[in-house]
Design a protein that fits this description.
four-stranded parallel β-sheet; 424 residues; 16 helices
Length: 424
């Protein structure tokens, strides 16, 4: 009984590297290895891999008839129940392949969505995944119902009993899904409002936010645990963190920040998934500093870093100060990266974390400054304004003025510079 419950679903992988495709969309040995890791993460077992080189994708079967026949042989020889494609398939291609291969067919986007659905723990995460799944499903409904619509325009006729109801059902399903999408978007907007309120409270309390970003499995959760002493599960698998985790971190005796872990990025991340997770990922554009964690032990670390940089840009956080944190430096044999806003660490052993904290402190200092002001009683309106827009750490009422210790933002500095108390 136990063996049956633990039996993994067998899968065959397929990918296409076509000259006509965008270079980022082509399948490679590396992207196929990543796809195999995704299948493993989803609870499947990879039995065989087929990688096709072709000038252009076949409009009907994506791979071409010969390769589909080869794929079917692989499926039958290995007793597979699933075919997973590294590239995004059109709804009609998915339907044709499913019919010809005799098994369920998933593309990379569908597989990632399935993993996200398994992993999302919070209500917010579940809402985001459900929204992305409906966006993914909507254009594929037509392909699902095509078996009820037999080329009536070219002289054929639909099977008896399927004329009308198929189309009616299709429209009914579309309306139902659009209603669900609208409802989910409304619920996520409510989540955004709560986040905005929390963010305003944080800003008022002047607690800077440092966000961990990076490719999936780069070691972000391990680093969060190392720095904050948290006990977040940090496993060697893709998309282990979906729901944002935030912990307090003391940078220096006088400086404390909120450190947030975010969902890992991956190449070919479905666009509708990025859209759905914007409620969480929009935190990046409000962060004071980003820590871009890069797995230096991966042979593909440069390409992975480029994927993350591109998504940071897409999420509107390109202007946020960013420190590149090269993780797993203890497993790297070459010359370590160096330069401004660059730190090499090992989140596992703790090596380099002191230098990382110093880099964060330096980056925050460029954004905000802690000053002691002597505010005349005739300008108490300024003190009220600072209470609203800055972080007033303490106030002391002296004979001729109010002494206030304040953390001010760069744009406020010019306004208060004349009131800075002389150093004793």
């Amino acid at each position: 009984m136990q063996n049956t419950a633990e039996q993994k679903e067998r899968a065959v992988l397929a990918g296409l590297a076509a000259a006509s495709m965008d270079a980022r969309e082509r399948s490679t040995e590396i992207s196929m290895q990543e796809l195999a890791a995704l299948v493993d993460t989803a609870g499947g077992e990879v039995m065989a891999t087929v990688l096709q080189n072709k000038a252009t994708p076949d409009p009907r079967t994506f791979l071409g008839e010969g390769k589909v026949a080869e794929l079917k042989e692989c499926i039958e020889a290995n007793g597979c129940e699933l075919a997973v494609f590294d590239n995004e398939l059109s709804p009609s291609q998915m339907r044709v392949l499913s019919e010809e291969l005799g098994v369920r067919v998933l593309d990379r986007s569908g597989l990632i969505l399935d993993i996200f659905a398994q992993r999302a723990q919070t209500r917010e995460g579940q809402l985001q995944v459900e929204l992305a799944q409906y966006h993914y499903l909507l254009p594929r409904l037509t392909g699902m119902w095509t078996h009820l619509v037999r080329q009536t325009a070219s002289g054929g006729s639909s099977p008896i009993g399927t004329r009308g109801p198929g189309e009616t059902q299709l429209e009914t399903d579309r309306r139902h899904i659009r209603r669900k999408i609208q409802k989910l978007e409304e619920e996520l907007e409510a989540v955004r409002k709560v986040r905005r309120t929390q963010r305003r409270r944080r800003e008022k309390n002047a607690m800077p936010v440092v966000a961990l970003v990076g490719y999936t499995n780069a070691g972000k959760s391990t680093l969060l645990n190392r720095l904050t002493g948290a006990d977040i599960p940090a496993n060697d698998r893709l998309f282990d963190t979906l729901d944002t985790t935030t912990r307090r971190l003391k940078i220096t005796e006088a400086q404390e920040v909120l450190l947030s872990d975010t969902v890992g990025f991956i190449r070919k991340l479905p666009h509708h998934l990025v859209e759905a997770f914007k409620a969480t990922l929009e935190e990046l554009s409000y962060a004071d500093v980003l820590l871009h964690v890069i797995d230096l032990s991966s042979p593909e670390w440069e390409a992975q870093a480029e994927v993350v940089d591109r998504l940071i840009d897409e999420l509107g956080a390109a202007q946020t100060p960013c420190i590149r944190v090269y993780n797993k430096c203890d497993a790297y044999l070459g010359i370590l990266p160096h330069g401004e806003n660059t730190v090499c660490i090992s989140a596992k052993t703790g090596e380099g974390t002191g230098a990382l904290l110093a880099a964060v402190e330096k980056a925050l200092a460029r954004k905000s400054r802690q000053v002691v002001l002597h505010i005349p009683y005739s300008e108490l309106g300024l003190l009220d304004e600072l209470h609203r827009t800055a972080a007033v750490l303490r106030t002391e009422y002296l004979d001729r003025c109010v002494e206030a210790e304040v953390i001010v933002k760069p744009e406020q500095y010019g306004k208060v510079e004349r009131l800075i108390a002389p150093e004793e």
